[in-house]
Design goal:
By secondary structure, the protein is an alpha/beta fold. It has 26 helices and 14 strands. Helix 11 packs antiparallel against helix 12 and helix 11 (about 315-355) packs parallel to helix 22.
Length: about 800
């Protein structure tokens, strides 16, 4: 009865853990009104490297007494040109100016501003801009949402007019330039938006001159600011490709000496451009528009250094790292894909010649030195991504040759990690390298997540703040590696225990991984947690052997659906502005705008599929597994028969990575990152299984047996454990004697046959269980390793007829 309900209980455990992790949210008091007036000041292209006490004294003083951060200026276009930035600022969501442009360039855009009455202004192009964002963009953005949320707004300069124009093009009060004394103008409305020009170019002298002019104008604004006002200064856009991080400063009551952050970033010291509109409304105590902003109100957090020069080192350094990351990430993944392809080609002949056959026409065995070298290369390839993540602990981006420094640090870490795996106890066992690599990868990514995911932010294998998609938690690559590493670790551990305990081990390890991925304090990836839940359910269902039947697949599907429904119920009960991705999608679905989210996800999937080098890794891994490892000569089917928990882990990884990629809009990127770890280890384990495929035991060790639910008939000891009652270290690898095999030059080993027949360790440790079934022991005679050519022996009697040496030669 208990065995019948075990899948139900394990499914419930995973679901409860997942819902608990996803439902938790950090305690946060709702933002409150802090000002009677808000002044938004924009300087396109302004970066923290442009700010110093001599060039920008006014901005320096504001930053010293206010709160600061790095601003990601993502919009509907890449890069975000000045007109896109101003439009996004006024919309509170990703927006883009209509019109043709070449990729990667910011052509000058002449914004037509008409002043028919001398008080306000009108933008005749606004109607077409609103239609463009409604029909051609998938964000549901309404330009002018910020100005529509207040009764009156002021715009100074053409960029500010773009931000302050209502959806029908009207600007309430407009001045083409800042007057000598702007006090009356800034005090005429509760919201003022001021355009102070652009800082552009790469020449330091030119940028200093532009920044100084903007700072002089800022001094007029600060001197004329109304009482109880909040002044926000932001570098609202890029001026050319590639994108960079920009300045954001908040100065006013309640914003003293802190870092800026928001719920949209979840990272101290980071804001998005779309956060400025909800920040202004929240500071004024005004309600949000009916169609909610994509941004979230900024808040101040403590912990900033007292010395401003020290404090701005962090955002300036983050800008340099993000810029270097974009240049390095492309060639890193291209080289990784090329290395994986080369290793796949190199492994093919080794797989073909790994199984030794008797007779004069049998190909000579591959040199042990060659095999050992390829094994080390496979380990190194599997550890490349974790090593690249660790490389970001060293500030390689600060040098003149950032790419070279990163390559040197990463190679050194790969060599060190490979040596660690090589000299780990148990490396010579079939699953030794697989377990060590999986555990090491899981440890590296997990430790980074537990410590705040600082290595993933702007990291080469992490995510970039320039993209504006994620600022905290697990990124796409980290999710793939953590999924694969945790499930492989669960399978490796489960293979070492008795059969009936394997599902519990998989659920214990997998459930912990679900909590790490889904918790908003840690991985903050609800889609990844749902996907891993399905993967854990699949792995637990087949960890004891057997196939992925319809009923087992149904349990996995029910687990994923139960977690999704449970989290959706919890998320929908929150206020709209506090909902996660799932809650916002369901809310939009109820409002009839869920199609936009589906369109964005499908578009992102397609673009990622055709542009990402991780797609190459996923496809190459799939081809190697399907056309080589799963073939009769490939060894993976034999590995699956001997180690069913490893098969379960690989199946769970495939299910989880595909679901996470498709639902998360990253196509095969998660699967590619997982494959970069899994496929080399599967190839290495297959090589080792084939290398031992002709190792033999004494006659009589492979006798067929019939098991019932209670184990072997007659009360004989189960094959779950070796003679001493403990599981074998690999859960299916029993040693054969202590002499050296004349072909391999090392101690031969016996492994059970494929499937669940005689000698299979599907039921537990897989070792022999009595003296009669024990392999040749120490001091015993060695049995020749030859096998009669052309002999066809059933799998369940291979140990008797094919390995006994009787009649051979």
């Amino acid at each position: 009865m208990l065995r019948r309900f075990t899948p139900v209980l394990l499914t419930l455990i995973v679901v409860v853990l997942g819902v608990t992790a996803l439902a938790a949210r950090p305690d946060s008091s709702p933002p409150r009104r802090t000002a009677d007036y808000v002044v938004l000041v924009g300087v396109a292209g302004l970066r923290w490297s442009d700010v110093d006490p001599q060039t920008t004294p006014t901005l320096w003083r504001m930053a010293q007494q206010g709160s600061i951060g790095s601003l990601s200026t993502r919009s509907a276009h890449r890069p975000t040109c000045p007109v896109d930035g101003w439009l996004t600022l006024g919309a509170g969501s990703y927006a883009g100016w209509n019109g043709s442009r070449q990729s990667g360039e910011c052509p000058p855009v002449g914004v037509t501003v008409e002043q028919p009455d001398g008080i306000g202004a009108n933008l005749p192009d606004q109607e077409s801009v609103v239609a463009y964002n409604a029909d051609r963009q998938s964000w549901g953005t309404v330009p002018g949402s910020l100005s529509e949320s207040v009764r009156c707004s002021v715009a100074v300069g053409p960029g500010a007019a773009v931000a302050a124009a209502r959806p029908f093009g009207r600007v309430d009060r407009y001045a083409p330039a800042l007057p000598a004394d702007p006090a009356e103008l800034l005090g005429s409305c509760v919201l003022s938006i001021v355009d102070l020009g652009t800082v552009s170019g790469t020449d330091p002298a030119e940028r200093q001159a532009d920044a100084h002019r903007a700072d002089e104008a800022l001094a007029k604004v600060v001197a004329a600011r109304p009482e109880r006002s909040l002044v926000l200064v932001a570098g609202v856009s890029d001026t050319e490709a590639p994108a960079r991080l920009h300045v954001v400063v908040a100065d006013g009551p309640g914003w003293e000496h802190g870092w800026l952050t928001s719920a949209s970033t979840g990272r101290e010291g980071y804001l998005q451009l779309v956060d400025l509109a909800p920040t202004a409304l929240t500071a004024l105590g005004r309600p949000m528009p009916e169609r909610i902003f994509l941004g979230r109100p900024a808040v101040k957090v403590d912990g900033r250094p007292d010395d401003l020069a020290t404090a701005i080192t962090a955002p300036a350094d983050a800008d340099r790292e993000a810029a270097a990351q974009r240049a390095v990430a492309g060639w890193f993944f291209a080289l990784l894909a090329a290395a994986q392809i080369a290793l796949a080609i190199a492994v093919l002949p080794l797989l073909r010649r790994a199984r030794r056959l008797a007779g004069p026409h049998s190909p000579p065995p591959v040199s042990r030195r060659v095999v050992a070298t390829v094994e080390l290369l496979l380990v190194a390839a599997a550890l490349a991504v974790p090593a690249a993540l660790l490389a970001d602990a060293v500030p390689w981006w600060r040098g003149d040759h950032a790419g070279g420094y990163f390559a040197g640090v990463t190679i050194a870490l790969i060599v060190g990690a490979t040596a660690l795996v090589r000299f780990t106890p148990g490396h010579d066992r079939t699953l030794g390298p697989l377990g060590a690599v999986a555990g090491l990868a899981t440890l590296v990514v997990g430790a980074d997540v537990l410590s705040g995911a600082r290595l993933q932010l702007n990291g080469v294998v992490g995510y970039s703040a320039l993209e504006g998609g994620r600022f905290a938690g697990l990124g796409t690559v980290g999710l793939g590696v953590f999924l694969a590493g945790s499930l492989l670790s669960a399978g490796w551990l489960a293979q070492r225990v008795r059969r009936q305990w394997r599902p519990m081990v998989v659920v214990a390890v997998g459930g912990l991984a679900v909590v790490v991925i889904g918790s908003p304090y840690l991985g903050a990836d609800s889609i990844g947690a749902i996907a891993l839940t399905a993967g854990v359910a699949v792995a637990a269902a087949i960890s004891t052997g057997g196939w992925l039947t319809v009923s087992r697949l149904l349990w996995a599907t029910m687990a994923g659906l139960a977690l999704t429904i449970g989290f959706a119920v919890v998320d929908l009960r929150r206020p709209v502005e506090e909902q996660g991705a799932l809650g916002r999608f369901l809310t939009a679905l109820g409002e009839g705008t869920g199609g936009l989210t589906v369109h964005r996800s499908s578009t992102a999937n397609f673009q990622t599929l055709v542009n990402s080098p991780l797609t190459v890794l996923a496809v190459v891994g799939l081809l190697l597994v399907w056309f080589a490892l799963l073939q009769p000569w490939g060894g993976l089917m034999r590995l699956f028969g001997i180690y069913p928990a490893i098969r379960a882990a690989l199946a769970g990884t495939a299910v989880a990575s595909v679901i996470a990629g498709l639902l998360g809009g990253t196509a095969l990127d998660v699967a590619g990152a997982a494959g970069a770890l899994v496929v080399p280890m599967a190839a290495l384990a297959s090589l080792r299984v084939l290398d031992h495929s002709t190792d033999r035991t004494l006659p009589g060790t492979g006798h067929p047996r019939t098991e019932g639910p209670g184990g072997p008939p007659g009360g004989a000891p189960s094959d779950d454990a070796p003679p001493d009652g403990r599981p074998d270290e690999d859960g299916g690898d029993a040693r054969v004697g202590d002499g050296n095999d004349p072909t391999t030059g090392r101690a031969p080993r016996s492994e059970p046959s494929d499937g669940n027949g005689a000698g299979s360790p599907d039921d537990g440790g897989g070792g022999p269980d009595d003296d009669e079934a024990r392999p040749v022991g120490r001091g015993g005679a060695k049995v020749p390793a030859a096998r009669t050519p052309g002999s066809v022996v059933p799998a369940s009697t291979e140990a008797v007829a094919g390995r006994s040496g009787v009649g051979s030669g």
